[in-house]
Amino acid sequence: MLYRFLGKEGSVLSSSIAVFGAESLSTGLINQYRGVSGTRNRTSTAGEVRVRFAPSPTGFLHLGGLRTALYNFLFAKQHGGTFILRLEDTDRSRIVPGAAQDIQHTLEWAGIPPDESASRGGPYGPYVQSERLRLYSSAVQSLLESGHAYHCFCTNQRLELLKREALRKGQTPRYDNRCRHLHANQVQEKLGRGEPYTVRFRLHQGAEPFEDLVFGWTGHAVGEVEGDPVILKNDGFPTYHLANVVDDAHMRVSHVLRGAEWLTSTGKHLQLYRALRLTPPTFAHLPLLLNPDGTKLSKRQGDVYISHYRQQGVLPEALLDLITHCGSGFNSNRMGRKQDELIGEFNVSKIVTHSAVLALNKLPEFNRIHLQQRIEDESQCRLLVEELKNLITQTLGDQIEDQEVLQRDYIQRVLHMRKGHITSVKDLLSPAYSYLWLRPTVSRQQLEETSSESHDIITLVMQCIRGCGGKFSTEFLTSELKLVVKQLKKTKYSSVMKLLRLVLTGHQQGPAVGEIMVTLGEDEVCLRLQKLLNSEL
Ligand code: GLU
User: Fold this and answer.
1) CATH number of the domain that 157 lies in?
2) What is the CATH number of the domain that holds 493?
């Protein structure tokens, strides 16, 4: 049962503070890191901002996870705070080998690395839950002592029966809280006999209201709809709820930005915070991400994983821009935002509650824009030159006649001439661009089909290029070529361009002739034209 409290701002808040207030203030752990507790849209960060991305390594990082990590990163950087990566690996049976490494590696690749994590270290480690078991068992101990938790000896068989019975009656299965009512001596007896047990948290009735930075005043009467949850399993590992709460408090997390699928768990978490005498962080639940067809993102295979995009040559900044573009959380929406602009323009109070549709079909466009930005940045362009050079060598290898095409200046010129047209450097290895690296072969028949004046045209163009006196620019060539055409009797401007494009590239369609000439350079253009004249047109 999820309640949203739509009353006047402040009225529910004051009662919620009263609930947490006195007890919490007496503990040392808290309040120094307590952030927002005010009205909706207030993201004031009185204390230090500490946020975390807390994935379970039960799968490789997907778009939804990347969005959560990104929003936490942006929030931290915007407030001069700390971004933590904590691996929540307490569900041992669901761990996927390699997932933890993939998550860490992907955050680095995406340019949103954590400040504190297992590999980077930090003052509140370890940052992997399976290495923090002592902390959880002491929390469980204190909950048992204060009567907020109890031992449960129900067997799997009994729990299974309860579940089946509920389903048969068309009800939602829930634990019937039977072991809540065991006497202390019965518990001691069972423990003495070595009976296997779990520890459950005693939920209380009623909704615990809290103000979510996205969803506003919310509450979930968890005790009315769920049985008491297990907080310590019989393998000695805590469940997600306990470990999550203990760690957020221990790691001084001020704000929790996580997916909206966790919104209903927050009621349970708030009860745990209170029982442990800890102050909860401020919550902001992020709306779901959907495919354009309205299906849940995680239901799709393959293309939700970030590794898929990495392998496709998608630029991380393009992916991050797309993720933020489709959602909300920014004062305005525009394409081509770089990380510092994302940080500057991020605004939690602008995040809306409705699901965000991820327009993956726009990814090539985002990549095109960001690739152009990289080409325009000197140091990034240098890396692109290296990348492209490796691709050319791997793909074309010994077909290359002229080693000039592997020179840095040439590759850089190609990138600058084609920026804004290509969506990936790999595009430059497609057949349409093979003329950049290999000399085309053009048949006499192809030329004759284009113009009967081929020989004259090529001779005139050669003369014009040789006489350009070093002014080999697109503007100069474009106006000179127009003058050449005026001297012709039969061939129109467009056919001349087609002919030249054919001679220079092997294709009739493609970039403007002036641009092709500047890219190839004066000597190479003359060489290609001369080759045709030599073949006696
Ligand atoms: N381990 C949870 C997950 O996999 C974390 C949820 C949270 O951020 O509290 O998403």
Assistant:
1) 3.90.800.10
2) 1.10.10.350
